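Worked example 3 (structure in, sequence out).
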């Protein structure tokens, strides 16, 4: 079968990659949509990972592994999944904090094969069935929606706080919609023209990063930009004393001056991942517009150009139709 494979940073489309046979509690999935994430590009650039790339998918379960026998209801069902393989046994997994599993591994970048292939195997505990009302394009964003919801919960959006979202990545634009729905007074700061039109459509304010005054008046600043260390000064200039900064960047996060954090008693939160089931439930309500974020569609057979497309500055979300 075909698979997009990285070998220490050299990417190739392999036409004869062996189809995996699900072992243990794994299931075999045939992807119907694949999403290229900033983390995939970073994994290639870092050059340490060898194996099938990819961590974001919607697909159909075709086969169950020997220990997933009781999960017949999943056969032929559409699913999305968490890219994180957890052990289920360490102290953190036992305490319900499996997203911080001490033996956790991420598919497509951490020693485990990912989903950019015609078939892939994944643990049954990592997947969640997609409700009928959520189509494949929307379901692809379940993880991103879940993460933005998790961020909202961590900082507690109460009253009508002033919220600034930095970056105009898909995550930023989803976070802006979710914070607006929770009654935040939200604006998005970025520099990609494609994001302006979308924000206007949703009634979310959008400003160019160079047009904004640093007045220490924002209750919450959420960084969703990728590889923009210079956004550290921006975040600290925007947040009010005792305000909150949320870090969700996939790449090198903003560089925050500890002296400023101390002086203004700023609270800094890291938000890693949410529960895809929660993202699916939110998408099923139909209030979020995520499909507009898809800026380009490519095919798995396009090979390397899949990653080149995703690296183009003007692209919001590149989706692979396998
Ligand atoms: Zn664990």
């Amino acid at each position: 079968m075909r698979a997009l494979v990285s070998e220490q940073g050299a990417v190739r489309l392999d036409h004869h990659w062996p189809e995996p046979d699900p072992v243990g509690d794994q299931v075999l999935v045939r992807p119907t949509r694949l999403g290229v994430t900033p983390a995939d590009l970073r994994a290639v650039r870092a050059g340490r990972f060898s194996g099938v790339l990819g961590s974001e998918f919607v697909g159909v379960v075709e086969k169950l592994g020997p220990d997933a026998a009781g999960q017949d209801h999943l056969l032929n069902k559409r699913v999305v999944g968490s890219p994180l393989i957890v052990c289920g046994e360490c102290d953190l997994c036992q305490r319900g904090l499996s997203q911080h599993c001490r033996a956790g591994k991420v598919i497509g970048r951490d020693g485990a094969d990912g989903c950019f292939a015609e078939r892939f195997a994944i643990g049954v505990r990592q997947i969640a069935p997609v409700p009928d009302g959520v189509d494949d394009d929307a379901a692809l964003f379940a993880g991103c929606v879940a993460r933005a919801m998790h961020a909202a919960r961590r900082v507690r959006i109460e009253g009508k706080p002033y919220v600034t979202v930095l970056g105009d990545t898909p995550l930023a634009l989803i976070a802006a919609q979710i914070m607006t729905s929770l009654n935040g007074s939200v604006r998005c700061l970025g520099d990609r023209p494609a994001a302006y039109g979308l924000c206007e459509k949703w009634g979310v304010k959008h400003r160019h990063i160079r047009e904004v005054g640093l007045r220490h008046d924002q209750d919450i600043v959420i960084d969703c930009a990728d590889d923009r260390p210079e956004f550290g000064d921006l975040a600290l200039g925007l947040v009010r004393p005792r305000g909150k900064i949320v870090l969700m960047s996939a790449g090198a996060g903003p560089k925050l001056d500890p002296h400023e954090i101390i002086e203004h008693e700023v609270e800094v939160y890291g938000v890693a991942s949410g529960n895809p089931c929660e993202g699916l439930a939110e998408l099923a309500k139909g209030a979020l517009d995520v499909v507009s974020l898809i800026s380009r569609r490519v095919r798995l057979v396009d090979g390397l150009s899949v990653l080149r497309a995703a690296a183009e500055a003007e692209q919001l979300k590149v989706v692979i139709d396998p």
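Notes: The mean pLDDT is 94. Residues 86-87, 89-90, 92-93, 98, 101-103 surround zinc ion (CB under 6 Å).
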